[in-house]
Amino acid sequence: MAFEAINTLTDEQIQDLHTIYQSEWWTRDRQLLDIRLMLQRSDAIVAFCDADSKRLIAFARVITDYVYKALVLDVIVEASHRKKGLGRNLMDRIIDHPSLKCVRHFELYCHPEMVPFYQKWGFTEDLGELRFMRRVHASM
To answer: What distance in Å separates the CA atoms of residue 89 and residue 48, rounded to the nearest whole number?
Structure first.
């Protein structure tokens, strides 16, 4: 299957992303309007679509200050296109992204079973004394 890299999504591809999100427990509750806002406010988008149909098949995004930190978020591949190297290709494109070349720390969080995947790009669980923390908005 041929695919092409894209860095902006068409309206149809945003709907494809919503559909892909609905199939995963960690993104299932995301609403289309919120996804549109999220995309507008993300600093970098890396995605792949089917070369023929232009249907979105893989997606990731980055929030960054372009100097010190870049947070990699929402790395996701549509279920029928997994195990074809698209996740690896997404990560390669993020790490090599021209606007992120000067970023000192790339960060992400993932489930334990995904750690070996991300270690291929030098991500580590060894953060010394650092701890991941979260505050949930009361109305969410």
So the answer is: 9
